[in-house]
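Onboarding guide, step 5: your first structure request.
Type a short instruction followed by the sequence, for example:

Predict the 3D structure of this protein.
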Amino acid sequence: MRRSTRRDDIQGLRAIGALLVATFHIWVGRVSGGVDVFFVVSGFLLVGSMIREVRSSGRVDVVAFLARLVKRLLPASLFVIAIVLASAPFWMPATRWAPHMVHVIASTFYVENWYLAWSAVDYLARDEVASPLQHYWAMSAQVQALILLCLILAATAWIVRGTPERRARMVVTVLATAFVLSFAYSVYATATNQPVAYFNTFARMWEFALGGLVSVVLARVELGRTTALIGGWIGLSLVLSCGILLKVSTIFPGYAALWPTMGAALVLLCGQGDHRFGVGRLLSIKPLNWIGGISYALYLWHWPLLIAYLTLAYQTHASFAAGAGILAASVLLAWATTRFVERPFGKVREDRPWRTIAVGAAAVALIVAGDGGWRMRTAQAVGADKLAAPDPVRYPGAAVFDRAWFASDGRVPIKPGPLWMKRDVSPLYAKKCHQEIDRAKVITCSFGDPKAAHVLALVGGSHSAHYFVAIEPIVTARGWRLVTFTKSGCIFAAPRAEKSRSGRSCARWNDNVMRDLLRLRPDVVFTTATHGKDGTDEHVLPRFVDRWNRLNAAGVHVAAIRDNPWFANDVPECVQINGPDDAQCTIARSAAFAAANPLARTHHDPKVHFIDLTDHLCAATRCPVVTGNIVMYSDRHHMTNAFVRTLTPYLAAKLVPTMAAVEAGSAR
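The system replies with structure tokens like these:
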């Protein structure tokens, strides 16, 4: 197979990768594997260039490499971030501003992947609407992996003594070792915690190493025309079919990522040559080459445009026509960004790498300053969005279910305001009294008189935790002590066999909590009584009853409350975009709760006391999201502190008789 010095097919492969990413995001709502193609191509070009540098000079110039990264990546990347930062207040709901400012900083410093990995284990962040900069996770992983590989290869070349060729051989050996170790770790991490592994640089580094190894193989191996013909088309078929046949977002990286990466590797190995039916001929056509030339900027632009459209249209996906418009606008902006931003900076002299790095640092500083200014203005305004103290006249909350109106009466602003709606969550989180979703250690906190004669334990998941602000005043008013045992995404129930990491941690946590409760012997355990995200699924789990029976046998009373509604849309965002009374925000009562109350059909011990507050969560036919000028939910299913406080008298009416019965029994 005759080699050519110009690889137009690589530009075509870049174009395919960019188009796969954009079209799958816009129309399919899935991940395509196109990012993995970019990773292999980056490794082929950049890691391959480091190997060639070692072979020619015996070293890797780290500063020059960093300068090339800055010159290649930062101009377009920071330009898009700056535009999104400046435009966001005009189209983004204020409920998103706080997390968006974090995404700006994480993307600017190329650590967005780690922020998303952290968010993957943050239970309250799981329902967050996607950030317009979320796709920067891929560039973050790319920059981190390339810098790490650069340092590793530079250190290897520096340590090894001998000719440049000997050093190059050792560099290739180390690169192959990095590939094996990273791939092995990727398989392990994907099996144990896939959502985190997806964004983990160390679980992705092998993809860049693979590209570098392909460049080594290509320099040493001559492929026959037939081999190159078949291999190239197999490779392109793997790249194109990945997103269709595999659910990339839930099984990558690990073994599954070999599908698109090996496809890209085959195209790189077999794409050059002069066979008229070779894959290189297709990938070298002018339209693909043109798109390949703007592929980086196309990747940067398509996602924020998609998120802006979905936000303004209040849709979950784009129609074909809307998607075509988004793609066309992305291509136009990508061309302009490449022509007027990326290419002018690409002409900067390479003999002054420190100057290039300094210019990049200055641009980063401007982004940070803009983000900081926005944070200051937001911090000054957020205080007005809080409901500082109970106000039964202007903010009656749950009390209005005894009246004829539910949302805002139009005379006072609803609270919490948009800057605080999503942050008005149970104080147990800030007090470090609530366990994370993937940990099994029991965290307990005690409130009230430590020498109190009676104890109430608040036990369960986040839906138990959000009642804290109503339960604490009830318990302390009667001179009891409140002890909390709560964990995200983990109902208080008898354990069952679990496959996921969070499921296994929940099972262990439940066992540990049961042990601690039997040791503590509280007078009353308060927990949730029903499970299910809609009316057709609402029921009392037998695993709940198992727990209650064990506690009852130990003399412990159980106060079990019927769960609150789950909404289809993020409530604060829906309220801000569409208004508090919009039908898209609310839900029919029949859709939220079972027609026949499952509590009434459950056989239970006399020491189990059911609490049902649905008449103060829903009206006769619908469940509102704003009641008595108070926003009821901080996301799709967690209630705000402001609203829960207004439930206190109604909860007390149900809970205090149980507490009084315990007190009376103790007196006898």
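Each response can be followed by summary notes, for example: Residues 164-197 form the longest helix (34 residues).
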